[in-house]
Amino acid sequence: PSRRIFEKLFLRLKLSYDHLESELLRKCFLACSFYAEKQEVNVIELIHWWIYEGYIDLTEEMALLEAYEKGAHLIADLRDASMIQVRDGGLIKFNDVMRDLALIIKSKEFIKKIDQKLLEAPDREAWEEAEMISLKENQITSLEQNPNCPNLTCLHLCSNHQLRKISPEFFEQMPELRFLDLSWTGIDSLPRSISHLVKLRLLDLDFCRSLRNITGVGALKQLITLDLSATPIEELPVEIGELTQLRRLHMFATVHLKRVASGILPRLCFLEILKMGGSSYAWQSEGLVGEASLQELLGLRRLDDLALVVRSVTDFEFFDQSTSLQSWKDDVTIECRILETSTTMKFEGKFNKWESEFEEEDMVAKILAAASSMVD
């Protein structure tokens, strides 16, 4: 009886899928089912995924917020068709049957081998029909092959901590790749074939603890998101300035970053999110010769989410008083750590005010000092 019930449920869901009003909605459902490794998925992450896949057209005139609104309409359509559930807290819920349905529909095109203790990637032949591949959380040490993947749009290789070698030719035959996650791997450089990924929209390299050389990234002209967080890079490469479509640049916890050359950031005229919290690079109102300065940063008119470190109170005052900053203030979110005082200042445009947060050890010292004075 339970099998018959399951089959009836499955057929009902398949009917719902077939009756979705557009091919776009069917693609969105299949993609989010592939993306969902747990029963719940963050809405914003899912919408980013759809943007990278090209299901949401992000034009130059459009801000990310507008793309989120388009994504929200697609989510509402899938919810109304009973394909997903939308929960409080910006979460989308899937059930196992839904994921099974998607994986059956795309059995040849979706390859998911997550946390299976794989020592090697699947054979070259397995890649040929694939559209999306996830080999996350395995024990793959090298990728020596040169797979022919004419339809591959998404490749997850993250959390293969021992992955140190990718053959120079590996990406040569992936002309449609849009999403590449190499985070938490052991690579120290990008293979030269990275420059072939001319349609790539996301490159995730965060927590690649050995990565010091990202030569070739400048060829990725369609890149929307680049994540270099917690990598040991010491200098932001000049070729980053070639990524003129970039909307999100994450360099959180780049504790070895010593230099950002002048002239790079002004070319990123569409940049909306810049995350440099916890970086060792401290911005100044007037940078050293040949280095980026706060004045240069403030020229990025589309920024609405910014985290950075400034060297001194004087630099922070310059930042706060800048007329450019005033033009941001309607909807911008800023987190600014002042190195000189170990203070973190936070600004929310909707409240139009700064609030300060001391580092934990400073706060403890203040509490102890206050307690001591009360005893006295």
Automatic annotation (TrEMBL):
Keywords: Leucine-rich repeat, Plant defense, Repeat
Taxonomic superkingdom: Eukaryota
InterPro entries per the UniProt record, alphabetical: Disease_R_plants, Leu-rich_rpt, Leu-rich_rpt_typical-subtyp, LRR_dom_sf, WH-like_DNA-bd_sf
Pfam annotation, one family: LRR_8
Single GO BP term: defense response to other organism
Protein name: NB-ARC domain-containing protein
Origin species: Nymphaea colorata (pocket water lily)
